[in-house]
Amino acid sequence: MTLLSSQIENYMESSSWIRKMFEQGIELKNKYGAENVYDFSLGNPDLPPPDSVGEALHEVANNASKAFSLGYMPNAGYPEAREALATYLSRTQGEDIQAKDLILTCGAAGAINAFFRAVMEPDDEVVCPAPYFVEYGFYAGNFNAKLVPVKSKPLTFQLDVPAIEKAFTNKTRAVIVNSPNNPTGQIYTREELEALSKAIEKHSKKIGRVIYLVSDEPYRFLNYDNLELPSVFDLYKYSVIMGSFSKSLSLAGARIGYLAINPKIENAQQLYNGVVMTNRILGYVNAPAIAQKVLTACVNSEVDIDIYRQRRDAMAKVLNAAGIKYTLPKGAFYFFAKSPIEDDVEFVSLLLKENILAVPGRGFGYPGYFRLTFCIAKDVIEKSAEGFKKATKNLLK
Ligand SMILES: Cc1ncc(COP(=O)(O)O)c(C=O)c1O
């Protein structure tokens, strides 16, 4: 007698290279000591939250004994939190975004799920450039929709718009992009996003159906070289933006994120009301009250980006010394490097022999590469250099 649905049973069997590496990492750390293991597998921000977060939490505690201070609220979130976020997003997106366009959610993950729940019919398709954040497939599956990955260009991971167009069908309901990107660290240019928007618009007209451009942006603040990050609101009418403070305030466990709806959509209010409802009926009800209060006070704070920048540069040196090819990440905190041998799983197991944990590219729908996260201290990155060199050298023997 089976305890699980067949879908979840399948998911558990076929998914999560990250979890596998996590478990192997625990084993290695127990055996050799944590200081001798180089764990590049998990994207859990390791920098402490800015001081303003602690101060805001004290303020919440000081007011906690007042009635309703942590009670039910409008499902879209506290008005003052949405006002503060609207000011922040208007600045960072370069668009006029108001509180009425915003719904606070349980992280970007909660925003994507609430949005999909509101717009997907069964068997609808979500097109997504690969490699991609694996959870997208599960989020689409939650609502009987299907993720359709389309490979980006090798090594640079620029969008392959003609290939994306070929993947469109009459079931296409959304295209989801993530820039700066997990796992590649790349940032899409205005030209790429314009070409994508045009392709979506053309297909939407052809099938007579709204196709959404969904921009998932939890790494927007991690833009090392101050490149242009165009707002999808400027490029395509039926667009929504998701984001969160999991990385920018190191608050991943506090579950605070948002969905912004392009105010240029005619009748945007209908979509807004729909997502407020799905946020409620999925059981999130509203984004956590305490995290919303922290957000209101801290929306303009950020962890120190320079620390991540220095780690990126240190990681690049380590890979150069080992002769490993990659495109330098322009944002986020990931390298998606080329495996020196075709089989990325085999190369990751060679790294494991040197106590280095990485995730095979096939876990992100792009075999032949592997992902390294730089959520670990710079000196640990530097110390891993010998291991990388040995792993690649062993291949030549
Ligand atoms: C691309 C991408 N989207 C969404 C998320 C979910 O983030 P959140 O904690 O905001 O739900 C992550 C988390 O790692 C991510 O990498």
What's this model, at a glance?
By secondary structure, this protein is α/β, with parallel strands linked by helices. The chain has helices at residues 6-14, 17-32, 51-62, 79-93, 107-119, 135-141, 161-167, 190-207, 232-235, 268-281, 289-298, 305-321, 344-353, 378-383, 385-396, and strands spanning 38-39, 102-105, 125-130, 146-151, 172-178, 212-216, 239-244, 257-261, 334-338, 356-357, 359-360, 369-373. The protein folds into two domains: 6-49 and 303-396, Aspartate Aminotransferase, domain 1, CATH 3.90.1150.10; 52-298, Aspartate Aminotransferase, domain 2 (3-Layer(aba) Sandwich).
Q: What report would you give on this structure?
A:
With 397 residues, the chain is α/β, with parallel strands linked by helices. The chain is 43% helix and 14% strand. It has helices at residues 6-14, 17-32, 51-62, 79-93, 107-119, 135-141, 161-167, 190-207, 232-235, 268-281, 289-298, 305-321, 344-353, 378-383, 385-396, and strands at 38-39, 102-105, 125-130, 146-151, 172-178, 212-216, 239-244, 257-261, 334-338, 356-357, 359-360, 369-373. The strands form 3 sheets. A 7-stranded mixed beta sheet has the order 2-8-7-6-5-3-4, with helices on both faces. Strands 9-12-11 form a 3-stranded antiparallel beta sheet. α3 packs across α11 (289-298) and α5 packs parallel to α6 (135-141). The protein is globular. The mean pLDDT is 94. Pyridoxal-5'-phosphate is lined by residues 43, 107-109, 133, 178, 182, 216, 218, 244, 246, 252, 257.
